[in-house]
């Protein structure tokens, strides 16, 4: 039976200064796209009165964009051919291409449970799942950068991140449902956060193998779109009723933002690891949410001091996670 080739060894940015100057800001930028995507998809779901269909439009639009990039760019076509070849040779396991189902499940959990558990508790549950899972995925070496040890600093960064996000959303916790009454929805939401680093790690492995994030991202969105389409068809068969599509084109741009996020994460995981990529994206989400509330406020939007300080604490957690343990020991010795 053919063995799966281990993840290629990638050059790692060992200097904290280089980490902060290159990879982490890009991870923050990737995270910035998520609140805007959520606002666009949320508005589309409101107009359609169908959040699941809005998610399907987002995934389907992203699949079309990545298909166009694959056809137009010579590097995209070459990488797609290489992806097919390596899959046939089992250098890339066939089940890697099912990672798009994770993205579909994440959208499904978001559209199904966020209204019930509340956006604040939802955010804390997802971030908790993402950070703990990112630590484990790095330790298992599932990403293309290989294994990364669980150090005291990285554990501290995870705890700080979860605490910072809880602090940032604390003003919105009043009026939310009691957590004891929604253990199952919370578990399903946290599962989406836990699974996301696995999807990013697989995408990073594929991107490193074919030297392009384009074909893997395309397969992700195709598989995810198919899964969401099947769920929506089942829902339509049960509930019935076709919605009227709004005419504003900007409502269908959520997929483009998703492409930016997934492509950047596939590139960054190879160099800075799953955990740092996840932490950077979480910081980007908080910063993006602040900017949205400031520049594009909607009913109920407000900027709280806790949100600002919680965001700053998240950035501090990223720096702590990026520090090598040896540098910290030398600092204390001095």
Total tally of structural domains: 1
Distance between the termini: 55 Å
Strand content: under 5%
Helix/strand order: HHHHHHHHHHH
Q: Tell me the major beta sheet.
A: none
Mean pLDDT: 82
Class by alpha and beta content: mainly alpha
Task: Report the radius of gyration as a whole number of Å.
Answer: 20 Å
Secondary structure tally: strands: 0
Shape call:
globular
Helix content: over 70%
Spans with pLDDT under 50 lasting ≥5 residues? Answer: 1-14
Count of helix runs: 11
Tag the structure with descriptive keywords.
single chain, 334 residues, mainly alpha, 11 helices, 0% strand, disordered N terminus
Summarize the structure.
By secondary structure, the chain is mostly helical. The chain has 11 helices and no strands.
Structure, described:
This protein has 334 residues and is an all-alpha fold. It has one domain. The chain is 75% helix and 0% strand. It has helices at residues 16-48, 51-72, 74-88, 100-117, 119-140, 152-169, 183-210, 214-239, 254-295, 305-322, 325-333. Helix 5 runs antiparallel to helix 6 (152-169). It is globular. The chain starts with 15 loop residues before the first helix and ends with a helix. The model is unreliable at 1-14 (pLDDT under 50).
Helix and strand topology:
Layout: H1 16-48, H2 51-72, H3 74-88, H4 100-117, H5 119-140, H6 152-169, H7 183-210, H8 214-239, H9 254-295, H10 305-322, H11 325-333
């Amino acid at each position: 039976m053919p063995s799966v080739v281990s993840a290629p060894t990638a050059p790692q940015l060992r200097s904290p200064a280089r980490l902060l100057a290159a990879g982490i800001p890009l991870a923050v930028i990737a995270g910035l796209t998520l609140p805007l995507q959520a606002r666009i998809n949320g508005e589309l779901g409101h107009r359609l009165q169908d959040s699941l269909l809005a998610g399907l439009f987002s995934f389907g639009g992203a699949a079309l964009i990545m298909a166009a990039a694959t056809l137009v760019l010579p590097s995209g076509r070459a990488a797609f051919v290489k992806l097919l070849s390596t899959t046939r040779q089992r250098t890339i396991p066939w089940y890697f291409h099912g990672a798009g189902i994770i993205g579909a499940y994440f959208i499904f959990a978001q559209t199904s449970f966020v209204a019930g558990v509340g956006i604040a508790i939802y955010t804390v549950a997802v971030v908790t799942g993402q950070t703990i899972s990112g630590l484990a995925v790095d330790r298992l070496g599932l990403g293309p950068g290989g294994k990364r040890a669980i150090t005291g600093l990285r554990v501290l960064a995870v705890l700080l991140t979860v605490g910072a996000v809880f602090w940032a959303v604390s003003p919105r916790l009043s009026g939310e449902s009691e957590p004891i009454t929604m253990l199952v929805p919370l578990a399903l939401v946290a599962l989406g956060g836990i699974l996301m680093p696995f999807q990013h790690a697989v995408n990073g492995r594929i991107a490193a193998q074919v030297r392009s994030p384009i074909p893997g991202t395309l397969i992700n969105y195709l598989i995810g779109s198919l899964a969401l389409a099947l769920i929506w068809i089942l829902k339509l068969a049960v509930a019935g009723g076709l919605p009227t599509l709004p005419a504003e084109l900007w409502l269908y741009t959520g997929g483009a933002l998703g492409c930016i996020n997934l492509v950047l994460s596939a590139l960054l995981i190879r160099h800075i690891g799953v955990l740092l990529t996840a932490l950077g994206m979480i910081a980007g989400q908080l910063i993006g949410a602040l900017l949205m509330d400031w520049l594009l406020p909607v009913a109920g939007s407000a900027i709280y001091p806790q949100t600002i300080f919680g965001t700053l604490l998240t950035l501090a957690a990223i720096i702590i996670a990026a520090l090598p343990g040896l540098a910290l020991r030398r600092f204390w010795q001095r």
